[in-house]
Design a protein that fits this description.
The complex is a heterotrimer of chains A (330), B (538) and C (186).
Chain A lengths: L1 H21 L4 H29 L30 H14 L7 E4 L7 E4 L2 H19 L10 H10 L11 H19 L1 H6 L2 H23 L4 H12 L11 H16 L7 H7 L27 H14 L8
Helix pairs in contact in A: 1-8, 1-10, 2-10, 4-6, 6-8, 8-10
Chain B lengths: L6 H4 L29 H6 L21 H15 L1 H8 L12 H6 L6 H16 L1 H6 L10 H11 L7 H5 L6 H14 L5 H13 L7 H19 L14 E4 L3 H4 L3 H15 L3 E2 L16 H18 L3 E4 L4 H14 L25 E3 H10 L15 E3 L3 H7 L3 H10 L30 H7 L1 H14 L3 E4 L2 H14 L4 E4 H8 L18 H4 L5
Parallel strand pairs in B: 1-2, 1-3, 3-4, 5-6, 6-7
Chain C lengths: L2 H7 L1 H13 L4 H9 L7 H19 L4 H14 L6 H18 L1 H7 L2 H40 L1 H6 L6 H17 L2
The chains are: A mainly alpha (330), B mainly alpha (538), C mainly alpha (186).
Chain lengths: 330, 538, 186
């Protein structure tokens, strides 16, 4: 049901874009208004969400420590998994954000005959997640060639590297393959394994379908229904320079691609995709475990009712005196 | 599940449980799987809301009339006060990395014990009441209305989480179920839905200074018995002081160490160690509880109970505080105390009076963990140790959740153990250190009402212990947590009865060669020191 | 060819079905996890069951009530005794083995009319069920015993103080303790 709902929504988006271009020729709507609106929503929404998170204070310093603390000088601290300095935190966060360190912890043990245990590791989720995010990022950067004139050298270089296998004309991008493969894996895993199907929501399926749709439409556009790249670049440069010009000689597949991307952008701030921003703010990861070294301040710390020593002694004074415990008042 | 099954149902082989969505599966309170509610008198003593007589199995929970408003307002307030809560409500992608990391899920298989789903219990309400998409798409997008059934589900599952933080280690965003459970319990507390096993210790601790409600004179009796036992085993009369002004150090440890078996042997370990060092320290009857069940109640309650530690240190005029072996106590001391009740500017930066070592890592909070203190002593050769006295023990070490995942005390206890006994074996890698499995009795679950839940939740831990028992003949499970000492004892008795539980300082006490001691024939426990009779292999 | 040989030949199938039949007494989420996760430490339940089924199978074909097999059966029951099952559910999985056998051996049974031999196998299952029942009760009693024991441990010193727990040796020592106590407090 949730799956179907997500799939149909994405399909509907495709149909809308196709029909809008093919039958209503709404080039301006799909080529200009929707992209602008989507980017607008994305930026405002993203900033709003991050500001809202930042608006809630961090009352306590609660890092999850995953290694030896800094204590006595002769005990080796694990500076990355249990950082006590800002530098260490940056290291920990970098490992987390660039390499998904925590997912890599999925070790498993195999019991074999013989004296020693063998440690394997359940790395598929980590691998697929990493492959997906990195290829997505590279594809995104690669697309900047459409947004820049002249195209910076680094982007051209990345582009060439990505296509270095030189298979087919135009040459196949490795990241295209990796992206589709990893998203498919993440999708199949979610559908086939009952634990994950049980916990999955629309907001889990929908982005997967959307990204799958974006990937497929992009590949179709590059390899099968070729579009006029020069017109595309003109359109994009027009958008970037706030001087949009539409042209009718780009195939409708391009508008489908744009529609799906626009949807992703607009949907982003309202969804779990915000983990992209949230991961930076997670208090169990981005704080140093220096709790006993430097006092953490809680901005809303307020006085509470306590049971004072005086009240305690008043209640138990006789009993304390009977066993020679020193008291304040005789 | 119905109580009576037809014979035919028993032999059904293609039985698959109905594939209902989790939101449509209400909880069923069964004996052995929930804790009795807090007694009204305890709630009243603490000025906590809605004291009444009730039971989770009742249809009517006697909630205040505007209970819904209270919960939603409570959520709103906490979303604004805790970034952790807000972020954890928003960014979970349900990748499932945590799903099989919870000991309760591993041992019992209840899907709502998967950390992701435990959090969804709260998240679904967050979506339904605080987000647009939740309001529009409803249950399709994992949102739902707050109902009494939801509340019952919260009560059931937030008291089936030991706040051990194991799932948080594996989460790519560090989402910490302990934090979510704490919020869930805070909200339940607003309605007076809490458990007596937590609230009674809280009330006792508030009044008498310790969980069992032991009054000062009785406390002295307990110590006397321990001192007699020490005399019996070592021939030395140890004389600790209580509430003594002007001592250099205040020592704080969980009260289970004075009263409970086998905690008392760990406590004897502290007593002989401090005696041998000639440490200028004092115990306090007012601050006679290191543990803090406020952690299992609400942030405010943590602060209310914790306040007495610094207050007492100040009143007695000590220089710094030393803390005994305890898990959740140390989460509070390490991550909350200074922020809540500091700054401790009336204390001095801790320096070991024996070795002169400065405990740089405790310079603000001014409280040192006993394993840091003892490891430093051993490293500087200040203790005369005879590890062969522990030769009858084959030891493995259980990393207690909070010292491992909220502090990172991993090597200190291991260093001590390796110096006080000759036979030490590690359990498999994915069951120790930051990946350690909980005893399944933490966070206020360690009561006999929960026995079945605890036994199955403790299976992953026990299973690893059994492995080293079968492979290396391990017969002693060491830990640095008072709750562990109580609950692992029970757990071992069920799963691996050959293995007994010990605190690290009990072994220190046994190995410690004291000045003027008689020839030791008994351990602190009163067991014969077998190996000392024959050859001495140091 | 006797029935044991046939059963041995179909060992893999019978074991697989037997194990998945126990797994399926859990929720669908849990049963996939119990089946798929092979790490004995990350998945003690699944590991114990798959190990245990093998041992049970051996007992079935050899009629050897060997210690190892009984030990494994005991381990499975020990786990199920504290899980969310009624007593009949907890040990009922053994009876459903009968159905697996009947279905797996259907053809051979008809062809060779081995029903008498089947009855023999089934009575072995019945015997195991009796053993399982003993284990089950043992562990249920253990759970209740632990509740009492834990309560005693928790307030060990208080109970000792109140003379609620003491043994003979302690009573002798108590006389000395009482004498010394008064002095020591000063």
């Amino acid at each position: 049901m949730k799956l179907l709902f997500s799939f149909i929504t994405v399909l509907l988006l495709v149909i809308i874009a196709y029909a809008g271009i093919r039958y209503a020729s709404l080039y301006y709507v799909f080529g200009v208004i929707i992209p602008y609106a989507a980017v607008g929503i994305f930026i405002t929404g993203f900033v709003y969400r991050v500001l809202k998170w930042a608006g809630s204070p961090v009352p306590f310093r609660i890092p999850t420590t995953c290694g030896q603390e800094k204590s006595l000088p002769w005990i080796k601290q694990n500076k990355l998994d249990n950082p006590s300095s800002t530098l260490g935190v940056i290291g920990r966060m970098s490992l987390e954000i660039l390499f998904f360190r925590s997912l890599l912890r999925n070790t498993k043990t195999e019991l074999r005959e013989g004296p020693s245990l063998a440690y394997g590791s359940d790395k598929w989720l980590w691998l697929a997640g990493l492959a997906f995010h990195w290829s997505f990022l590279i594809i995104l950067i690669r697309h900047l060639r459409l947004f820049t004139e002249p195209v910076p050298y680094l982007i051209t270089l990345l582009n060439n590297l990505d296509a270095f296998l030189q298979i087919g004309v135009p040459p196949l991008y490795i990241t295209d393959v990796v992206l589709l493969a990893s998203v498919s894996y993440l999708f199949i895993r979610r559908v086939l394994i009952p634990q994950f199907r049980y916990i999955s929501l629309i907001s889990d399926y929908f982005p997967l379908f959307l990204i799958l749709g974006i990937g497929i439409s992009g590949i179709l556009m590059r390899y099968f229904f070729r579009v006029n790249l020069i017109s595309v670049k003109e359109l994009v440069m027009g958008l970037v320079s706030f001087n949009p010009q539409v042209s009718a000689d780009i195939g409708s597949i391009f508008y489908i691609h744009i529609m799906l991307i626009a949807t992703l952008f607009a949907y982003f701030p309202f969804s779990k995709l915000m983990h992209m921003g949230g991961v930076f703010l997670s208090p169990t990861r981005n704080l140093a475990n220096n709790n006993r070294m430097i006092r953490h301040i809680n901005p809303w710390n307020y006085p509470v009712k306590v049971h004072t020593y005086e009240e305690y002694e008043d209640e138990f004074r006789d009993k304390m005196k009977a066993v020679d415990i020193p008291v304040e008042k005789e | 599940m119905s109580d009576v099954l037809k014979p035919a149902e028993l032999s059904k082989i293609n039985y698959k449980p109905p594939r209902k969505e989790w939101m449509k599966t209400p909880v069923n309170f069964k004996h052995g799987m929930y804790i009795y509610p807090a007694k009204a008198k305890n709630l009243k003593y603490l000025d906590m809301p809605n004291p009444r007589e009730w039971s989770p199995t009742d249809k009517d929970w006697k909630l205040p009339e505007n209970w819904k408003e209270i919960v939603l307002e409570g959520m709103r307030e906490r979303l604004g006060k805790y970034r952790s809560f807000k972020i954890f409500m928003d960014i979970c992608v349900r990748c499932g990395a945590c799903a099989d990391k919870c000991h309760f899920f591993i041992g019992g298989g209840d899907p709502k014990n998967m950390p992701v789903l435990r959090a969804e219990l709260l998240r679904s309400i967050y979506r339904g009441h605080f987000t647009k998409s939740g309001k529009i798409f409803g249950s399709l997008n994992g949102a739902r209305e707050l109902t009494v059934d939801v509340l019952k589900e919260w009560f059931y599952y937030f008291y089936q989480c030991t706040e051990c933080r194991r799932c948080s280690v594996f989460c790519p965003y560090g989402i910490d179920t302990a934090e979510i459970t704490m919020m869930g319990r805070e909200l339940l507390n607003l309605l007076g839905c809490n458990v007596n096993w937590v609230i009674e210790p809280v009330a006792n601790c508030y009044r008498t200074g310790n969980h069992l409600g032991i009054q000062p004179h009785a406390l002295m009796d307990m110590f006397e018995m321990m001192l007699d036992d020490i005399y019996d085993r070592t021939g030395i009369r140890v004389k600790p002081s209580f509430n003594r002004k002007g001592a250099e150090i205040l020592f704080v440890t969980p009260s289970a160490d004075y009263f409970a078996e086998p905690g008392i042997y760990t406590c004897m370990g502290y007593l002989v160690l401090f005696h041998e060092l000639g440490l200028d320290y004092t115990w306090s009857t007012y601050a006679s509880e290191g543990g803090n069940f406020g952690l299992f109640t609400s942030h405010e309650m943590i602060k209310r109970l914790n306040a007495k530690i610094y207050a007492e240190a100040k009143r007695l005029g000590v220089k710094w505080i030393l803390g005994g072996e305890c898990g959740h106590m140390w989460r509070v001391m390490h991550q909350y105390m200074d922020t809540m009740n500091g700054p401790a500017d009336f204390l001095e930066e801790p320096v070991s009076p024996v070795t002169g070592t400065k405990f740089e890592n405790a310079k603000s909070t001014k409280m040192v963990h006993i394993t840091e203190f003892t490891a430093d002593l051993i490293r500087n050769n200040k203790l005369k140790l005879d590890p062969s006295r522990n030769d009858s023990l084959r030891v493995t070490f259980h990393d207690s959740c909070n010292p491992a995942r909220a502090m990172g005390i991993l090597e200190e206890p291991r260093y001590i153990i390796k110096n006080v006994c000759n036979n030490f074996y590690e359990m498999p890698e994915n069951t120790i250190r930051e990946q350690t499995f909980c005893c399944a009795g933490g966070a206020g679950l360690g009561t006999d009402e929960m026995m079945e839940t605890r036994m199955r939740g403790g299976l992953p831990r026990a299973n690893a212990v059994r492995h080293v028992h079968e492979k290396y003949g391990v017969n002693r499970l060491a830990c640095i947590c008072a709750i562990d000492r109580a609950t692992l004892t029970t757990l071992m008795e069920y799963w691996v009865p050959e293995v007994k539980v010990t605190g690290v300082h009990e072994m220190v006490g046994n190995a410690l060669v004291m000045e003027g001691e008689k020839e030791r024939t008994l351990t602190l426990r009163g067991d014969p020191l077998k190996e000392t009779e024959g050859e001495v292999n140091v | 060819m006797n029935i044991e040989d046939i059963v041995l030949r179909k060992k893999a199938d019978i074991l697989r079905r037997g194990a998945s039949l126990i797994m399926e007494t859990y929720s669908v989420n849990a049963s996939t996890f119990f089946k798929d996760q092979k790490d004995p430490f990350a998945n003690p339940v699944g590991y114990t069951i798959s190990q245990g089924m093998e041992a049970i199978f051996d007992t079935l074909v050899r009629d050897e009530a060997n210690k190892r097999a009984l030990d494994f059966l005991d381990r499975i029951v020990r786990i199920r005794a504290v899980q969310d099952f009624t007593p009949s559910q907890a040990i009922g999985f053994l009876f459903s083995l009968k159905k697996v056998l009947r279905e797996e051996l259907q053809k051979e049974l008809q062809e060779n009319s081995m029903y008498e031999e089947l009855l023999l196998l089934e009575s072995r299952i019945d015997n195991m069920a009796l053993v399982a029942f003993e284990s089950y009760m043992k562990y249920r009693e253990k759970v209740y015993g632990l509740k009492v024991k834990e309560f005693k441990n928790m307030a060990f010193r208080l109970l000792e103080k109140a003379n609620l727990i003491s043994d003979i040796a302690d009573e002798e020592a108590a006389v000395i303790k009482n004498d010394t106590r008064a002095e020591n407090m000063k």
